[in-house]
Hints:
about 525 residues; mainly beta; five-stranded antiparallel β-sheet; 4 helices; disordered N terminus; Organic solvents resistance ABC transporter permease; DUF5719
Amino acid sequence: MTRAIDPSQEPKEASTGLKVTTTVVSAAIVAGLVAVMCIVPSGSGVDHAVKDSSWVSEQVSTRRIQQVCPAQMQLTDTESYGDAEFQASTGNLTSHVQYAAMGSIFHSQVQPLSNEGESADATVLDGQHTDTDSVVTASSDEQRTPTEFETRLLTAQDGTGAVGALASYATKGDVEGISGATCARAALTQSFLVPATTTGNTQQLVVMNPEDQATKVTVEIWGSKGQVASATNSTLAVGANSSTTLNLSAAASNEQALYVRVQSSNTAVSSVVRSVRMDGLTPKGSDFVMPLEKPATEVTMPWLGEHDEISIMAYSEQTTAIKMSWITNHGLKSMHEIEVEAHKPFVYSPDSMPKDAVGVVAYADTPFVMNALTGTVRSGKQTDFAMVNGHQAMKQSAVAVPHAFKATVAVANTSSDSQKVEFQGIDASGSVTDSKTVELDANSADTFNATDLGKDVVAIRTTGDASNIVWGIALENSEVEDAGLDGVTFLEASSLQVPQQTIAASRNQGIVH
């Protein structure tokens, strides 16, 4: 996709890459650097080695954040056949998307994911700029196609990053309620824990390719008996600047949960899963399933809401015991310990949850991934649900807040010591609206309204060091509430830390001719 950026205007910091010295570096290292990433020196650049050493190292980081925001919630089958009252429909579905970039930002823009190249309109984010911190924003409505969200960086200083969020809602049709998704970073490999593929549940994988080169994507699936031989094509061809889908409910039917791995051969892709439930003609909720973080020995789901349905899904590469506890306003309350067999997704549904529970924390000796489906159960009536991924704490993080939604912030302290964390609200102009300091007891959690940070907040971020904090926002919509419908979704905060890597090279006179 052609970028609306003049290369001659690139910042010097972003164009120097690694500094080349008279040290001879092997061809393999150079080739690897070129193939893997565009890089800029971060911080002071060189990690100075002892002068008489043959080794030279430098800390480098990406200079480009590439994300894709999915289209609004859709149904797998909307063909017009049979009586109108029995046809699947998204009804009066509408959507809003919010984008924000902050920190050491050079340029940030969003445009439709399209193979039209230069004809695709790009919107440049705008806002406040200072020598140390820029905050730029943009928003849009009616997200009928995916959008590519690209941000160019000046440096890798703390507090630098980009966040985007989509929220759609309907009061009529088969997706009544609210669905939400964050803009996902493109990657060569992504994985998901997906809810049931039994009757009435539809799970549709959407793979989006923001690059100018086509790619082949392999989809691997694991179920209750281990790896599943897909009943449909497990290899997808994804064209340049386009997307494609795979019906996971058809590929692996009658499973209580799936672990899905998406691997791209040529380009980084961004994927989500559209999850829709129906009971006959009665909508039972919809939401987006987002990519999981890397496996860890501790994960936190900071919000499960005041609902009466909770299904916790877990997966590990090795058989392991996972101990789970509720996080409440006053510490941890033991929940349950589950035994997860290697390569077999496990589902656990607690009978009830404490009234003061805000979320769940889980521990194991072996790395694992986890998420939860939380919602309501009402026989014969419309319900909704939210998908919440397990996360690790981040030093600094932020979340975008789509307009037309009421946001509630849920924050969990994963430390055995009390913690203070400051949140800032940001408006559409990029200005800070207000701040709020939240004090949390050890291993406890709390919630507060986003309006505590001011009016018309479009993004929320933490300041300082919040390395023990996991948080996100739950969204509600007044039109859905006024229609007497359930509607909820949850958006996890994203890191404001630019990934960094140390590259080392040594002198090798043996290859000098």
